[in-house]
Amino acid sequence: MANLGPGKAAISKEQAGLRYPSNGKTIYHRPLHRSKTAELSQSSFAYLFSEMVSYAQRRVTGIQDLEKRLNLQGHPVGLKLLDLLLTREPARTQTRPLTIIALLHLIKINLWTHLFGRQADRLEKSSNPDTPDEYMIVDNEPLVNAYISVPREMSQLNCAAFVAGIVEGMCDGAMFPARVTAHTVGGKEEGEMWPGKTVFLVKFQPEVLEREALIGKG
Amino acid sequence: MASSKASRLGEETRMDKVNAELVVLTYGTIVAQLCKDFDSDYVEVNKQLDKMGYNIGLRLIEDYLAKSNTVRRCANFRETAEMIAKVGFKIFLNITPTITNWTSDGKQFSLVFDENPFADFVELPDDGRAQDELWYSNILCGVLRGALEMVQMQVEAHFISDVLRGNDTTEMRISLIRYIDDELPPEDD
Amino acid sequence: MSYYFAIVGTQDNPLFEYEFGTSKQGGDGQSRFTEQARHLNQFVLHSSLDIVEEVQWTSGQLYLKVIDKFFNNYISCFMTAGNVKLMLLHQPTAVAAGASTRNSTSVGVNPTSPQTEEAIKNFFTEVYENYVKAIMSPFYKVNMEIQSPVFRQRVAAAGRKYL
Question: Could you tell me where this protein is found in the cell (chain A) (predicted)?
Fold first, then answer.
């Protein structure tokens, strides 16, 4: 553990020069759950989001770069929501996820409900024996895609990449390091019923499965 | 339009909603990303935010006109201020900033934000500069500039105080530069 | 009782430290660590991180209670969802551990009584809430030190209130 010795602390305290309003209000005074159920217009989100995407587009060279960038931008949101959502659980269910399934449920239920007002539609484990590390979170009709006014052919990909980043941040924060990517699969399997159907593919790092095996034995 | 009528319009306008925290956190990642991209050159970050807001404003005005059922143009800049504060901000951010500090020529006013959802959860970096240089919510200035330009008003908008900087209020100053289409009748109040 | 509280990041890096004493039973809130003990606190806390790593995958509880003891030092731990550790080293003062108070269950004296366990839980819970407020800021990056004097005041207040 690196030293945060008193000398250093004293110096940083002097430098800690944030000013506060005279009423003393800071982020620490604001009740953490005040905006838990607060709502804002979808358009506000859509405008912000599409501006975020077009800004990102100007700074990248291809769609993969763009997705990576949006994924990176979603990542810290996932980290923050992991703690925020857990503190909002009732005390008896306030537990850290210890298994992949517990984590994915937290994402499918808590994260989705928080962000989109409903659970994700399905959770699936890869049926391919070669990829036991892959799981899928299925959203038949991603809410956010509906009103993002970036070019149609890119919109679903864009928005979902941001959400994938949020999911990835949650996995990483909970110490289930994973790579999460979004794939539009609508139209392929179920005709036109869910044209926007999106699969979030969660690929866990090998150490996660190793640990899971150990815990299972214990 | 009477002030009370503007308020009612803001209240009555029904909108599809999303979780406010999603919007707030998304805006946070935008500002954080800009700070990273421009290596904490906050003056540049302000400019970028304003630019983003401007782009949003250009498109948002249609939405605003449709949602607010506004058919006729504002009779004067004071009425414009009422509509911005009580309809525009109410629709899009669910807040109603206070209009104040008019200049006697009726061409400049302030919006004072008692609430600012964008600033929820936010503490500026403690680097000795951010509180002097960064206007965290600067995107809003751009939005007003862009939206009003679409209805033939050239305005200048900038924040003059922000609780995130340790000020007691968050105040934006809006100045009418000119009506863009000179053929339209000048304001008569 | 003397307390040394630290928030330890996911790379075992310290994010925050605070030392205080009990405010219960007429305590003045000042720690009574000897100079020697003070130098050891960080080391002692750090040594119990291995145990935290074992315990954290056997229990999903946030509050892991006393996870380690080193001579007269008791280490309580609270894991955040993001696997940051809130750790409290509590050390009964030599005088207070004397015969008259040995059987006491009170928070300021007995480091392992149910009352103490509960008090520490409340302390951690309050600090956790403030910690989440700190990390919610878009400018907070994972494993950044928490330097806010307001956060420090909040931790101090939680200490006074419960411990």
Answer: Endoplasmic reticulum; Golgi apparatus, cis-Golgi network
